[in-house]
Design goal:
alpha+beta, 11 helices, 39% helix, rod-shaped
């Protein structure tokens, strides 16, 4: 896997992780999901409603906060409150008369606080099958609220608005800051991993570490644009590698690479590859020059040779063999470093593996500055010449 593909995968993983962290933070901290229209007390079954009212009555006997108790029962109308209090009074009356009296006194205080009408009280008592004692207390004992000896009556006080807590005031700010640092840490980890996978950060263009050569025709020193080594191994059914050719300033000149030659592989799995395609694309010529690198069997077989493009010059895959692929402004020198054939018949017909090194050069006789002239076959099409 080449570095560009590794970098692409790394960026994809980084984007996925960052998106996941942002999504979870937003969904769980910033805007968590809620049970819209939740299950309110009036929607509960009768037994849960009775337990709820009993718990509020018992809470009132401890804190004597009638305003809070009234707010907790705000989801019920007055008739329902009387009915539920009557049922609660009946339920605990046979078990704990003291608790039953407390519920009755709570009902009295609630009637005073909320101003229940006689019709509402009567309707609630009838539907709740209220005991006579509970009915008597509600009907006649509403003037004062009994208190324990030595304890002064509690006067309901409207609760003030509670001051916001520290988390209510600063929670979102802290969450955003924490999210920022988490993203920074994730980005740092991904960049560290990528830097370890790629030996060192390299500039867009780097002069290959190869010896400069002298062009035999012009005597001009040749400076390599790029050097690349590629290895095909059996099982890489979709093998196709390429690399860009650029100037020191980053101007695109073309592209080159190696892949499996079309129609020169069997249909078995893994494919039996009979020939490779070494190619170079020259931007100035808008044309791809191809050189087939053939196995010994296909190179010597006329039927296979006839399938080759007449404009291409096939070569035999031999270790140490050197060849050239030339275009208008670019050319490559190639070396076949290693050839291993598969063992199945016919002998030397398909590659177990093959390694090729390519070094690309700029033609010293071509001036790539300014506007380039177009090839003859494109001049009639009124195409604007490309600029570099």
């Amino acid at each position: 896997m080449d570095n560009s593909r590794i970098q692409t995968i790394g960026i994809g993983v980084l984007v996925f992780v960052v998106g996941l962290v942002i999504g979870l933070t937003y969904a769980w901290r910033i805007n968590p999901s809620t049970y819209a229209g939740g299950a309110y007390p009036p929607e509960w079954n009768n037994r849960f409603q009775e337990i709820y009212v009993e718990s509020i009555a018992e809470s009132y006997t401890v804190n004597h906060d009638i305003v809070e108790a009234s707010a907790r029962l705000g989801a019920f109308n007055n008739v329902e409150k009387v009915r539920l209090l009557a049922i609660a009074n009946n339920h605990v009356g046979s078990i704990d008369p003291g608790r039953a009296d407390a519920i009755a006194q709570f009902a009295v205080a609630l009637r005073v606080q909320e101003g229940w009408t006689d019709d509402e009280v009567i309707a609630g008592l009838s539907t709740g099958n209220a005991s006579s004692g509970f009915s008597d207390v509600l009907g006649f004992g509403i003037e004062t609220e009994p208190t324990e000896p030595g304890v002064e009556p509690v006067v309901p006080v409207e609760p003030g608005e509670a001051s916001p807590s520290f988390w209510q005031r600063w929670g979102k700010v802290i969450t955003y800051i924490a999210l920022f640092f988490v993203l920074v840490i994730i980005a740092a980890v991904v960049l560290l991993v990528l830097s370890r996978i790629r030996p060192k950060h390299q500039p867009r263009w780097k002069k290959p570490d190869v010896e400069e050569e002298i062009d035999e025709e012009t005597g001009v020193e040749l400076t390599p644009l790029r050097q690349w080594s590629g290895t095909y191994t059996l099982g890489s059914d979709y093998y196709d590698e390429s690399f860009a050719l650029e100037t020191e300033e980053g101007d695109f000149l073309g592209e080159a690479g190696m892949g499996i030659l079309d129609d020169f592989s069997s249909g078995s799995s893994p494919k039996r590859v009979l020939a490779m395609d070494v190619w170079i694309f020259d931007k100035t010529d808008v044309k791809t020059i191809s050189t087939p690198v053939m196995s010994e069997f296909t190179y010597n077989d006329e039927l296979f040779r006839e399938k080759i493009n007449p404009e291409s010059t096939p070569i035999l895959a031999q270790e140490g063999f050197e060849f050239e692929v030339k275009a208008s402004a670019l050319f490559m020198k190639g070396t076949i470093d290693e050839v291993v054939y598969g063992e199945e018949a016919p002998p030397n017909s398909y590659f177990e593996s093959i390694k090729v090194t390519l070094t690309a050069y700029l033609n010293p006789t071509v001036d790539i500055s300014g506007t380039m002239d177009l090839p003859d076959h494109m001049k009639s099409a009124n195409v604007t010449p490309p600029e570099i």
